[in-house]
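In response to reviewer comment 3 from the previous cycle, which asked for concrete evidence that the modeling workflow produces usable outputs, we include below a single protein chain processed end to end. The sequence was submitted unchanged, and the resulting structure tokens are shown without manual editing.
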Amino acid sequence: MLNVAVGGQWPGYPDGSTVFPQQMQVDYVRVYQQTVDQPAVGQFSFLQSDNPSLSEDINLSLENGVLSGRASIDGSVDNLVASFEYVGESITVNGISQSNGLTANDFSEPVTYTIAGEDGSEVSFQVDLAKFTGLPIINISTDGGASIESKDDYIFGTVSIDGGRGFSDFPESIIEIRGRGNSTWGNPKKPYQMKLDSKEEFLDMPKDKKWIFLAEYSDKTMLRNRMAFEMGYISNLDWTPKSTFAEVFINDTYNGTYNITQKVEESNRRVALGDTGYLLEIDQIFRLDSDDVYFETDRFLLNIKEPNLVSGDAQYVYIRDLIRQFEAALFANNFQDPTAGYAPFIDLPSFIDWYLISEITKNVDSVSFSSIYLNVMPNEKIKMGPLWDFDLSFGNVDYADSRYAEGFWIKNNPWYSRLFQDPNFVDLVQARFVHFRENQDLMLEKIDTYAAKLKWAQQENNDKWQTIGTYVWPNPVVYDTYQEEVDHMKDWYVQRMDWLDGALNDL
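The workflow returned the following structure tokens.
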């Protein structure tokens, strides 16, 4: 059992660590108690002998001044008896006296203990006991225990959520579920699309029917999509998907940690297009489904995602001709003319912010391949967005130069390459980059925050899928620990921002 001093590490730790060999811990507590007149806790645990709901003893460890640990997936934490030793006159929780091995508390949320010293001084410390990994738990059961094997055909089942801390529970409800993705569908850990019977809040995200389960298999940090979304939240883009990490069980078997997101689709809570708007995706012919409706320009194939159209009908002709007219104006000799050039066709703030987020993250597919979304309302300007599919960003690719923190990438997109030939566009990009540069530290803090939330989740996920320390396509580097993967992502991002700061200013 770990012996700790309240409020931080023991004074005099030779290496800054918080774990000593057992006998050194015991001896250190005795010395500390004899020499320091200060309230302190010596050890803290939950013993199976005192708590029938536990399958094993839980010994807490000190991290950042908090005593933390976790219970198993089937362990209840709402009525547990703690075992502890302390130095002081009394120990209480919300003014209620606590007895070692006798007093029960609800640890569904962190619990604060207060130790009073004989001299009247007080010290408080927090006990943070998570259930499983601390993330909400999604339970999916398919009818007859059927496997989810198709990207085309839904199968029926039910879903429920144990929201744990910070999320609402979701009662068992009927669903349809199928696979999704292109290259990601070929991974051992599969991504899914789930459809509810009716529009409902899911993990406290706005009501809707369809939800995406991103497996994040190739991104060992599981943070790249999330961080691209975070940049979207501080951008001029109309809408960026909300997402939440959760643990997913399918037919009572743990399937890993997933990033549960809103689907990119028309909806008044998502891409608000009403009855007349369009959602388009730049894509490749070999990726299309047989019933997809698309058109081509001189430079791109655009898949019409919304609404469902018949090729050649009036709506189809309208959106096809609008995009072609924009492209023609963009590549005309007078493309810089504010009235006769490209400017009347596009919403510059969205084009610039989509560009900067995609260029900062150097998302491999965003240069011209796929998941490049546009949305259009009739008689309004073409807008870029929403953001989607950033698991191979932040240098997480070994088959393209987007691996490296230096060098332009999205600027090589044919449309953007031409836009950058307009000095006015360059000026606008340079000025707007300052906003993202000023938020660089915020993004780094968010990476650390989400990595901390995934502290135990990444362990369980790796126990299931065994990706840490091994090559997973298309990782350019392989590290032995999750934290090293996170640190690499952060270092790459800092280098990228430094390079862009100079390169954009030199244009």
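DSSP finds nine helices and 23 strands in the chain. We consider this sufficient to address the reviewer's concern, and the full set will be provided in the supplementary archive.
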